[in-house]
C-alpha cells in the first residue's frame, strides 16, 4: 500500500507550502512504534510554516503496514520546466509518478479579468459573453505508479488515455492505463536512489537509468520518442478551461479522439477530463449534473443526472478535489459543451457551480490507434 492515510496527512502540509512557493522542504520523518511522526521543526523559507518539515517521505507495505523511505524532496521549480525522468509526488492526489514529456496548453481562466487582446468569447447560447484570455501553461504527460492507484480515492478511476478501435464498431473504446496529465504547480519533485522507482509496465520500455546523468538520472529511450511522435494527435493537450463558483473550482480539459463511420454517417469522438476543487473550508457534496451539448449540425442536447460517473463525491478540507473523465460523440466535426453541477451544503441548501464553456474541435486528419504499445 503506497499512498495511504499517513502519506496523505503529510500531503496536506506539502500542498499548503508548495502553493505558497516554498523554496526548500527540509528534514526527515522518523517512524516509531506508536504510529506517531517525530518531526524536527524547521521553517519554510518562503511561507514561514513552522510545522513544515518533510524532505523524506514514506510509503507503506500492505502486509505489515511498515513504512519505508521512498525519496527526498527537491525544491519546486518556479521557472522553466521539469525534464523527462523527473520523479514527483502529486500535490493533490498523492500518487508517485514520473514525467515523460511536457505539453504547452492554452489555459483559459475565467477567474482572471482579461485585457481586450488574446481573449476568447463564450460560444453562442452559453448565457454569457465573457471574453477569457488564454495564457500558455505547462502540463506534463506522466506515468502513475501502479502501487498507488488503489489508494487515490479522490479519482473516479485510474487515469488513462482512451482511443477509438480501428474497426467498424464506432463505439468501441480502448485505454492505456496509468497515463495522466499533470499541471506544473501540481508537481512536488523528489529524487530516489532506486533504479526502478516507479512500478508501471511502460517504465522500462520508455526510460532508462543512467547514473552518469545529473538529476534526474533517467533518460528517454528511443521507444518513448518514437511513441510520442507517432501518437502525438492522440495525446496532445491544447486547451484548458477553468472557472470558480462559490469556492468550487472546475477545470476542464477536452481531447479530440477521432472520427468513425456508423450507419452511413460520421461520428466524431472527444474525451474530457474534469477536476472539481473545494478552495474553501465548507464541506460540500456534488449531487447533480446538468449538461448542454451543442453540435455544429444544429442540435442542442440537454443531459441531467445524479452525480458524475456513478458517484456523488464529497469535497472537504481533507479531500478537497475529485477528478473524472468521460466521453462525448457528435455527428458533426465540432460543437460546444457547458453546464452546471448542483452542489449541496451540510445544512441541506444547494447552489449551482458553473462548468466553463469549452469547444469540441476536430482535427483535419483522422487518427489511427496508438502505435508502439501491445494490447
TrEMBL record:
Keyword field contains S-adenosyl-L-methionine: no
Pfam families, per the entry: DUF525, YccV-like
Domain of life of the organism encoding this protein: Eukaryota
Location of the ApaG domain: 242-367
Any single biological process term in GO: DNA repair
Ranges annotated as biased composition (Polar residues): 114-129
Disordered: annotated span: 112-132
Summary of subunit composition and partner proteins: Interacts with PCNA and POLD2. Interacts with SSBP1. Interacts with PRIMPOL; leading to enhance DNA polymerase activity of PRIMPOL. Interacts with POLH. Interacts with POLD1; leading to stimulate DNA polymerase activity of POLD1.
Role according to the record: Involved in DNA damage tolerance by regulating translesion synthesis (TLS) of templates carrying DNA damage lesions such as 8oxoG and abasic sites. May act by stimulating activity of DNA polymerases involved in TLS, such as PRIMPOL and polymerase delta (POLD1).
Name under which the protein is recorded: Polymerase delta-interacting protein 2
Name of the gene encoding the protein in the UniProt record: poldip2
Amino acid at each position: 500500500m503506497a499512498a495511504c492515510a499517513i502519506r496523505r496527512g503529510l500531503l496536506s502540509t506539502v500542498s499548503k507550502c508548495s502553493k505558497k512557493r516554498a523554496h526548500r522542504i527540509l528534514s526527515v520523518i522518523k517512524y516509531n512504534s506508536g504510529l506517531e511522526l517525530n518531526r524536527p521543526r524547521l521553517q519554510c523559507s518562503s511561507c514561514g510554516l513552522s510545522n513544515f518539515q518533510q524532505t523524506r517521505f514514506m510509503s507503506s507495505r500492505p502486509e505489515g503496514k511498515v513504512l519505508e523511505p521512498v525519496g527526498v524532496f527537491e525544491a519546486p521549480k518556479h521557472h522553466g520546466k521539469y525534464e523527462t525522468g523527473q520523479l514527483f509526488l502529486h500535490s493533490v492526489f498523492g500518487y508517485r509518478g514520473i514525467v515523460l514529456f511536457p505539453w504547452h496548453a492554452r489555459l483559459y481562466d475565467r477567474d482572471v479579468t482579461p485585457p481586450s487582446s488574446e481573449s476568447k468569447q463564450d460560444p453562442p447560447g452559453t448565457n454569457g459573453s465573457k471574453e477569457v484570455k488564454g495564457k500558455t501553461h505547462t502540463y506534463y504527460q506522466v506515468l502513475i505508479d501502479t502501487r498507488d492507484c488503489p489508494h487515490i480515492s479522490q479519482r473516479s478511476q485510474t487515469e488513462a488515455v482512451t482511443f477509438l478501435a480501428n474497426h467498424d464498431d464506432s463505439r468501441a473504446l480502448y485505454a492505456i492505463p496509468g497515463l495522466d496529465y499533470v499541471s506544473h504547480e501540481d508537481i512536488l519533485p523528489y529524487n530516489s536512489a532506486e533504479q526502478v522507482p516507479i512500478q508501471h509496465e511502460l517504465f522500462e520500455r520508455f526510460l532508462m537509468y543512467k547514473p552518469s546523468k545529473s538529476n534526474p538520472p533517467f533518460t528517454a529511450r528511443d521507444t518513448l520518442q518514437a511513441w510520442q511522435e507517432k501518437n502525438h494527435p492522440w495525446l496532445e493537450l491544447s486547451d484548458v478551461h477553468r472557472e470558480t463558483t462559490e469556492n468550487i473550482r472546475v477545470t476542464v480539459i477536452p481531447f479530440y479522439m477521432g472520427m468513425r463511420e456508423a450507419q452511413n454517417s460520421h461520428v466524431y469522438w472527444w474525451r474530457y477530463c474534469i477536476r472539481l476543487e473545494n478552495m474553501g473550508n465548507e464541506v460540500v457534496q456534488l449531487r447533480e449534473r446538468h449538461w448542454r451539448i451543442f453540435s455544429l449540425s444544429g442540435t442542442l442536447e440537454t443531459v441531467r443526472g445524479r452525480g458524475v460517473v456513478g458517484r456523488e463525491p464529497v469535497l472537504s478540507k481533507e479531500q478537497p478535489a475529485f477528478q473524472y473523465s468521460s466521453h462525448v460523440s457528435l455527428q458533426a466535426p465540432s460543437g460546444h459543451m457547458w453546464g452546471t453541477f448542483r452542489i449541496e451544503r451540510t445544512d441541506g441548501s444547494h447552489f449551482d457551480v458553473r462548468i466553463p464553456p469549452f469547444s469540441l474541435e476536430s482535427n483535419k486528419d483522422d487518427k489511427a490507434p496508438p502505435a508502439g504499445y501491445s494490447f
